[in-house]
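Re: export button greyed out
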Amino acid sequence: MQKIWYGNSFRLGVLGGGQLGRMLIQEAINLNVKVHCLDPDKQAPCSELATTFTVGSLNDFETVYAFGKDKDVITVEIENVSIEALEKLESEGKKVFPQPRVLKLIKDKGLQKQFYADNNIPTAPFRLISNQSELNSHLDFLPFAQKMRTGGYDGKGVKIIKDADVFTTGFDVPSVLEKFVPFQKELAVMVSRNERGELAVFPSVECEFNAEANLVEFLFSPAAISTEIEQKAEEIAKDIIVKLDMVGVLAVEFFLTQDNQLLVNEIAPRPHNSGHQTIECNTTSQYEQHLRSVLNLPLGNTALIQPGVMINLLGENGYEGEVVYEGLEEALSIPGVKPHIYGKEITKSFRKMGHITVVNKDLEEAKVIGRKVQQLIKVKSK
Amino acid sequence: MQKIWYGNSFRLGVLGGGQLGRMLIQEAINLNVKVHCLDPDKQAPCSELATTFTVGSLNDFETVYAFGKDKDVITVEIENVSIEALEKLESEGKKVFPQPRVLKLIKDKGLQKQFYADNNIPTAPFRLISNQSELNSHLDFLPFAQKMRTGGYDGKGVKIIKDADVFTTGFDVPSVLEKFVPFQKELAVMVSRNERGELAVFPSVECEFNAEANLVEFLFSPAAISTEIEQKAEEIAKDIIVKLDMVGVLAVEFFLTQDNQLLVNEIAPRPHNSGHQTIECNTTSQYEQHLRSVLNLPLGNTALIQPGVMINLLGENGYEGEVVYEGLEEALSIPGVKPHIYGKEITKSFRKMGHITVVNKDLEEAKVIGRKVQQLIKVKSK
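Workaround output, generated via the alternate export path:
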């Protein structure tokens, strides 16, 4: 008989204590699942909410191993962790979801791209290089994006290279060069799978980026795409999680090209920024779904309840210090504005400080309100 | 300028640390409002989630006064608290919502009934008695419910008296005798008001009671009533909160008589069992609305998003000990089943251990699933 997954006798360990962990805890409260977090920042968003909160490095083998040893299931809310420690825990019989081999693959954008190529998953053409000097041998491949194979996150570690002149500014680390493909839209699909192999996929969403920060700034649910493209995106997402043989939720980001081809951009094996709106807009949220997946519970229904727009609240450029949310109270007076403030005391330029979901029966009206809210709320320092 | 209500510099104090406080905290996380609880039970549902959790008596003047002194706003999730301490805090300039005078009125069912009578609020005829022996002078009033003026809660402190033979089992304390009125339905409306006087009312719900425990067991949203009765119920609810000059959310329970008259049964000045389903079914939940009210923020939109059925998970009669939820995992496989487990380690006969909201586009289908879930989940001890 499986161990009871709720109450004090069961311990779910989460590597990372940021906003994704915080929203996971909010859902875990409903199921009375006890969440224990490890994070290097003692003031991380989960610090006051986790059943226990351990301050320590996510990349230190001993720290992660010691943290995982007394947990029943271990999961992550960030990929940049000691995979070696997770492998050891797994080899000792611990449940680690997503599995360490999946984290290893995804953490390295080169291996990730190779995985797509090997499994007939559509993605933009790519090449691998070891250092900056090799950029010169890829003049024929311009324009392209140079992506650091490891260590990039939240828009960092990516450079768009349009001509040979900017080769000098390229990263001097092992990188993927990804052919620049003109696209009409960026889409994202959240898919999940539990240990017994059940699959569930959320309807696609559409993402709009802040060009300056290279971060998702605006997200629409559902995506304005044809049923055919919707089905194709969902199929590709399911195909990836099955071929990865992965347990947990997986975010799949797509480019929809100008000729209506879907190309996989990146994947992330955890709850993701592009699934925040599921809290209000879908029967089951991505956070609840992640819990259901890693605890091997039946997966939840992913149906859309209502359209929504998600706006990331990024720290205003040039402000650093104790945070203040200008315009938040005025935004609260607008029907359907649902704030999620992450509880970070200190704001920095482009730091993710919170998000707003705007729900409305009519997506177009939600977009209008979303734009207004985006103008209204300014994340500044006191 | 008003003090900023989010972050560490603002402290919301809540008297009580039960499930209502727990769900209030879940919403407070979204707004990054720091919630500090006082409760006599060190294992209360809020104990691990509150920013600080103080163990102490809610009825002890000194304990409540000391707890409230360093808070910015004080509210309650239970009425049975030291009103004297709250009055002193209020007299010293603290914001206390609901106001102590409202708690005083509502805590005493005799004063509550008199308030309805004085303010032309429809309610069943009543009489007041001081002790059991006086029951004999009210033969002409049979059948009636005898309700203890103070101290009753969760179905305790109420007795249905149909004939003079059972006078010997009546309570020997000051009581309200309420004329038994045959009714077709029991309804409930949540209404809220902030300090600047804004009002918002949630659509009516329909309640079904467990006759044995005299507790709400089953709740449907929206209520199957005419637009005319819906409007009337909402008007009465608004009328009550305005006449009380109260800040916070207020639950108003009604009898709908066989000739379609609405009679106010009871009111409760806080989030309430009959508003649980607002978490999933309405744009704003009663918990978020309570926070918005007591923090003097704009009130949220109360529109129904989707129909729902709420089922209280009561401890099975005869079981006491470490809790186990039989059938919960099977219930999770049914689309639209949203569990809320309150985190109480010990179950007792009829103890409120959690609730399930079943959401569905079709209320009738939600009811069918709700009945099934009610049969499926048994709250027992190990």
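The longest helix of chain A spans residues 227-244. The button fix ships in the next patch.
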